[in-house]
């Protein structure tokens, strides 16, 4: 069977001047704080996938909007199974809910702008959010 990249989706959720991040429980970036999200299932729109994934990982209800960031992850070294993801992050509005980490999220919380520069925030996430906040 021909291998193809996995399509992933994330949601950039800003609420009360803070962004929602999750501490990943699985590769890639296990143990790092990242924009929450996951795989797009067959038949789902990007918006539906983002809304489902954020609910599963954080118990937060969001309304996903347009794409704001796209990146690719290719990890072929030091892994039992090489990874290739194409991830599309969508802007999203917080609707309701209190954070309760679940599914493959080890933790989830709101980060203020000045907390994004910390080393435990994954590098791509840190760079994107720093730029994002400059423009918003």
Structure description:
It is a single chain. The chain is of the alpha+beta class. The protein has 2 helices and 7 strands, in the order ββββαβββα. Strands 1, 2, 3, 4, 5, 6 and 7 form a 7-stranded mixed sheet that branches. A hairpin with a 7-residue loop joins strand 5 and strand 6 (83-96). The longest helix has 13 residues, at 46-58. The termini are far apart.
Number of helices: 2
**Could you tell me the strand content as a percent range?**
35-45%
Q: Averaged pLDDT, please?
A: 93
Q: What is the makeup of the main sheet?
A: 7 strands, mixed
Q: What is the radius of gyration computed over CA atoms, rounded to a whole number of angstroms? A: 14 Å
The H/E string reads EEEEHEEEH
Distance between the termini: 44 Å
- Structural class estimated from helices and strands: alpha+beta
> Total number of β-strand segments?
7
Q: Residue share in helices?
A: 10-25%
User: How would you describe the shape?
Assistant: globular
- Parts with pLDDT < 50 across at least 5 consecutive residues: none
């Amino acid at each position: 069977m021909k291998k193809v990249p996995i399509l992933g989706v994330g949601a950039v959720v800003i609420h009360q001047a803070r962004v929602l991040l999750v501490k990943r429980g699985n590769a890639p970036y296990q143990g790092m704080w990242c924009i929450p999200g996951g795989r797009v299932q067959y038949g789902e729109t990007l918006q539906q996938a983002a809304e489902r994934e954020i609910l599963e990982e954080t118990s937060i209800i969001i309304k996903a909007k347009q794409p704001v960031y796209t990146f690719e992850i290719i990890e072929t070294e030091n892994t039992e199974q090489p990874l290739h993801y194409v991830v599309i992050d969508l802007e999203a509005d917080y609707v309701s809910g209190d954070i309760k980490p679940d599914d493959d999220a080890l933790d989830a919380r709101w980060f203020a702008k000045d907390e994004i520069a910390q080393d435990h925030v994954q590098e791509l996430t840190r760079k994107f959010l720093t730029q994002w906040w400059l423009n918003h």
